[in-house]
Specification:
About 35% of the residues lie in helices and about 15% in strands. It contains six helices and five strands, in the order ββαβββααααα. Strands 2-1-5-3-4 form a five-stranded mixed sheet. The N and C termini lie far apart (about 40 Å).
């Protein structure tokens, strides 16, 4: 088997696994990182949303062989470390707004939200309704109103 090397939550990792194995399985089954959830496995539900080099991606759709040793994968487990705090401001906003119901989709929702807020900031603007409408993560509990409120609150502190 080929070796795959990339950075995960700030640490260099190497796994001995085929190029075509999806990153989600490497994270969950090989490395034991369970924040990215398995929902659909076909890049639809977005429960596994994580960051690759700062951008929101769905690990269920990325063959691990496409990663390079310098690629940085950040999961919900490493998000707070990106701001050197116990919780990332978006995670705190989630708690403050009491977003979670079942909680299954929440790691992916938070990771998508952070990416949207970062992109808006890079473009020198505030998060818009159109930005929020573009987040396609599925929440079976339907907490979308609280999710949107938390994203706006989290954006104020990012």
């Amino acid at each position: 088997m080929p070796e795959q090397t990339f950075r995960l939550n700030g640490e260099q990792v190497t796994v001995d696994i085929g190029d075509d194995v999806r990153l989600l399985w490497v994270l969950r089954d090989v490395l034991g990182v369970t924040g990215p959830k398995y929902g659909c496995g076909i890049n639809v539900c977005k429960a596994c949303t994580s960051h690759l080099n700062g951008r929101a991606v769905n690990p269920c759709a990325i063959p691990v062989g496409e990663l390079s040793p310098t690629d940085e994968v950040t999961t919900i487990e490493g998000l707070a470390d990106t701001v050197s705090a116990d919780l990332h401001p978006m995670q705190q906003a989630w708690l403050d707004q009491d977003v979670a119901q079942c909680g299954y989709c929440q790691p992916g929702q938070i990771m998508a939200a952070v990416a949207v807020v970062r992109r808006a900031a890079e473009e020198g603007r505030k998060v818009t309704d159109a930005d929020l409408d573009g987040i396609r993560n599925i929440c079976r509990c339907g907490t979308y109103v609280r999710i949107r409120e938390a994203i706006r609150a989290g954006a104020e502190n990012m």
